[in-house]
Amino acid sequence: MARRKKGRDISGWLPVDKPPGPTSTAVVSKIRWALDARKAGHAGTLDPAASGLLAVALGEATKTIPYVTDASKAYKFTIRLGQATDTDDAEGEVIATSDARPGDEALQAALAALEGDIAQVPPTYSAIKIDGERAYDRARAGEDVQVAPRPVHVESLSLVDRPDPDHVTLEMVCGKGTYVRSVARDLGHALGTEAHVVRLRRTWSGPFHVDHAVAFDRIEALARTPEIDELILPLETGLANLARVQVSEEAVARIRNGSPGPVIASGVAFGERCWAAHRGSPVAIGTYMSGEFHPGRVFRP
């Protein structure tokens, strides 16, 4: 018999403004401890050196993580031209240099070429698995790591500032799996120079925005106090990008048992992914099919 996790059975979302330094896993662990929560997870890793939005799910809200992870997200980041590092960020060792400093016109053209559906090679120091092992573990062991390109989508990539010839600040809106570090590296090569990320901040992800996130030090200050519960957002916050259908009392019982149930839906297409609600409370995530809701992930009451 599996051991039951200790802690409170609480559900919801806590969007955090992660500072540079801690890993995403460390932030989740601290929040779980601060809330004495039984279960927690996050919707999209941020590198330790990065800052910004880290959406943390608690309890039943962890079932909605894929729908936030799969949504578009935005980053603001600064790159250093003229230097490449082995990690494609400022944490690594410089492995190549260039004196070339292209002008803004060339920069704008190169940015446009990196938008849309592109094939991107993730950084060597990344969590991508190669034959069952993380790429960064192989790289740290001194292996010559070859990471295969993957299809990603860059919705927009725009110039924000050019404070000096060596530095460029950009904003990017992109889909799941896009590496900012790879964008910096590839931009440098497209410009005939080298480049790496020196500062990175995630500004929003799906329905969550960093302007409404909680500072990490505030969470530490309120740890294990009743006031910290006031920071938790409802579970359905993570479902804002999905259509919603209404179900009756009778349908709730069927759906929670894993069977289809009749729904009241407006503007929902056949086969569309959606979530079912009863009296405002989420019941399950599933698929709408000809007047019925077919459950996938069911929420415990």
Rg over alpha carbons: 22 Å
Helix-strand string: EHEEHEEEHEEEHEEHEEEHEHEEEE
Please state roughly what percent of the residues sit in beta strands, choosing from under 5%, 5-15%, 15-25%, 25-35%, 35-45% or over 45%: 35-45%
Q: Determine the mean pLDDT.
A: 94
Report on the biggest sheet: 10 strands, mixed
User: DSSP helix count?
Assistant: 7
In which range does the helix fraction lie? 10-25%
| Euclidean distance between termini CA atoms | 23 Å
Shape call: globular
Structural class: alpha+beta
Q: What is the tally of beta strands?
A: 19
Low-confidence stretches at least 5 residues in length (pLDDT < 50)? none
What does this entry look like structurally?
- By secondary structure, the chain is an alpha+beta fold.
- α1 packs parallel to α6 (216-222).
- The mean pLDDT is 94.
- The strands form four sheets. Strands 1, 2, 3, 4, 7, 10, 11, 12, 13 and 14 form a ten-stranded mixed sheet that branches. A five-stranded mixed barrel has the order 15-16-19-18-17. The chain has a two-stranded antiparallel sheet with strand order 5-6.
- A hairpin with an 8-residue loop joins β2 and β3.
- The protein is globular and about 70 Å long.
- The chain is built from seven helices and 19 strands.
